[in-house]
Amino acid sequence: MQELNTEPRKYQKKIFETCKEKDCLVVLPTGTGKTLIAIMLAIERFKKFPLEKILILAPTRPLIEQHLESFKKNLPENWTDMQLFTGKTSSTKRKKIWQTAEFIFSTPQCIANDLNKNLYNLNDVSLLIVDECHRCLKNYAYNHVAQKYKIQATNKRVLALTASPGSNKETITQVCENLGIKAVEIRTRQSPDVEPYLQELEFEKIEVAFPPEFVEIKVLLQEIYNAKINELKNRKVIFGFASKTMLLKTQAKLMQDIRQRKNINNMLAVSACAQAIKISHAIELLETQTISSFIAYLKDLFQQSAEKKSRGVQKLTTDPRFTKAFSLATTLGQEHPKLQTIKEIVEKQFQKNPNSKIIIFAQFRETVKTISEELNKLSGIKADNFVGQAIKEHSKGGTTGLKQREQKAMIEKFKSGKINVLVATSIAEEGLDIPEVNEVIFYEPIPSAIRKIQRTGRTARLSKGKLKILVTKKTLDEIYHYTAYNKEKQMHTAIDQIKKDFESGEKQNTLL
């Protein structure tokens, strides 16, 4: 394509050929050039239907701005009228821009809101590009836009992009149905046509022992948890194994029942359920995070109790086992062994290569803050917290979120080397233009295949990379680690099956 400023790779050309003919789901590892395929298809559709529009959607403002930059970089200057829609652009202005714009870059919420207000319709959109399309489920704005597109557009074509569409066939099929997908193109790091372009990824699972002093605290909390679960079973509201997900579903159902009809059994069960969830969270913090985050959470519960926010919390904090667990934690005089392990890994990497860049992923903000503080005590380490926008009220000294412009500024500092270790929550998983890193470290495993794949894609693109996952032995970490591994295997099996289903359906149609 003469308009392109970048030469596409062989697999990108092959995938593009499929996308030209059919509404396609493209599953490619992070950093292997999904956007270039989108640009190639946008050029092809725009040439074919020069009076129609191309609509490009991504779930966040930084991500859609990144797509706009990629299109500008890869296309000749002023080749087409490209416009960005965000919540900051007034709806009146968006209505006006829509009339003349040719390539529109937007978050799905903007388009969904405008369609609801009938400011314009999608009848003259010849291509809908949906990035991070695994979000196209239930009542998310993507789904709303996709349904309108199916009804309104004359010359329809859909390109759905993701590194990981979901871990089971039902979810992936649902995404495909919602977007009207008719073909699937998938590549992994091991695909013969992708492998030559990627660097070696060295993986290491690092096991850490759970200290006996921590076990003593866990035993006390586990006793409270077991008592609450037994109470819920006796009240006939749960049966069988009580997972955290099951408890949350039970709590929601009980609350709904109570709103319709007050019942003393259900009201007491809601309280027991809430207490079980809180203790379950405390155990997770103790097993997998930092002692400081565990203590902060318990202090928060004591604060809620003092403010008489809920009887359940008051009951919990007056339980002698709870107060003993808190007392033991505050007199421990030691942190979770993972913290020391992280420091050793980081120090070793920087001794080998002082210009290294590392991303450390952690689930909770309190943990992110503690890791950064500890790493900044090391010589030559410039670590900072990279967290999402939501501002979380916590105990005194709790962390607040980064606004999007602050996130962008921090990524620039990371690129330039002013920061060399980014300690991040899930905000750094999806899409953002974070530079190539030498090492990705998971402070804890996560049970989601989607998020694991996105995190891993941050390294081993242009140069060799390492992925290290810390696992505390005999804790939730082990369960989460194997859950993600199995879900990833299930995902590939499911995608292969869906791909075969599309192909066999096509053959049948040809025979008919």
The neighbouring-strand order within the major sheet is: 3-4-2-5-6-1-7
Number of domains: 3
Question: What's the CATH class of the largest domain, please?
Answer: Alpha Beta
Mean pLDDT across every amino acid position: 89
Description of the molecule:
The protein has 512 residues and is of the alpha/beta class. Helix content is 52%, strand content 13%. The protein contains 18 helices and 13 strands. It has helices at residues 10-21, 34-48, 61-74, 91-100, 108-116, 141-152, 169-179, 212-234, 244-260, 264-288, 291-306, 311-317, 320-330, 337-352, 365-375, 404-416, 449-456, 476-511, and strands at residues 24-27, 53-57, 82-85, 103-106, 125-131, 158-162, 183-186, 201-208, 358-361, 383-386, 421-424, 439-442, 465-472. The strands form two sheets. It has a seven-stranded parallel β-sheet with strand order 3-4-2-5-6-1-7, sandwiched between helices. The protein has a six-stranded parallel β-sheet with strand order 8-13-12-9-11-10, with helices on both faces. β10 (383-386), α16 (404-416) and β11 form a beta-alpha-beta unit. The longest helix has 36 residues, at 476-511. The two termini are 36 Å apart.
